[in-house]
Amino acid sequence: MNNQIEQGWPVPILDKAIERKARIAIRGAFGQLGARLIGALGKQPDLEATIGIVRRDPTAELRGFATVEGNPNLRLYTSDEGELGSLKDLGFDVELWRNQNFDDIDLVIDTTPPGKGADFAYRSRENHKPIIVQSGEKGFGRLVSPPLIAGGEGIIFEAGDCNVNAISVIGSALWDMLSRVGVNILMQHGRFFHGRLRDEPVLSTYFVSGKPTQEHLKHLFPSLDLTVGEISQVPSLRYYTHTYIMETADPVDAGEVRELLDQHPRIRCLPHATSTYDVREFDNILRAAGGARLPPIVPIIIRGGTPFEKSKTVEMIVTIDSRRITVLPNIDAARTLLWGIEPIESMRMTDATMHFAKSR
Question: Labelling 7: which of 54, 151, 292, 356 has CA 20 to 30 A away?
């Protein structure tokens, strides 16, 4: 898979001889993902969030004050002149974003919701600054989901969603043995319900087509026979679950599969787990034992594998921590795009700085 991973990544944006961290602007800095990214970038040896582009959002104001307090060197801007006064009235030291401010950064990561990023992305491109758009707008830019990147040109990049980011990692880890892959997905329903836990909308399961996700993945795996079935969605779900049925070119056993998976960053095989509750408990135990500020478990946990006798069919269940898998690939992609670090190595660096441990 190394050749496929290395193919397509553009020439690094920065010269490695530069003796400073890469400067990143986070658009949507007061949002949940934006705030998490700023905190995570603060742990990186070669990347930093120097600018936060914000808007006034009553649900995010408290998070905004916390973000500023935790990152006192973060400079704040707004691209909406109409909100400049109200942000200042709240006590934020904020300026209006102008095109010359693009000269102060090396890359933009846009974490705003779908429909909010197009104008700014085109503005970034016009000012020759690459931008990673993390909005879920499929087809908006060149898909990037480390360690893979879709073919194409341009400096607008579309970050993969939680499902794509997990499948790209597993597919790259097992690439050399795969001939066909089928994936069924259970994930969180995106709508927020204002009801009680026993109300019918909250207790229901919702179904959507897997075809858009399947077509999206074809940009990363153009030669792989890959099928994504109907996606089931339920409210209030932290761990997404993928069920894989994979066919291999040659017979393999569980040991071979697990060895490849465990060698790859961001993956841990936990064959004895029987539920996502078990995964979370394992996470809590590691955190207590390690004393780390952040839970050290990697975000992609795999249960199962082939029988111990050799087989051409691999079945496994994958759980994905939706809160963590969203942040990390943005950092991986930024490092590889900016400094030209090999994507697998970039993932290892991110895992290490975020305290994710894989004990043997």
Answer: 356
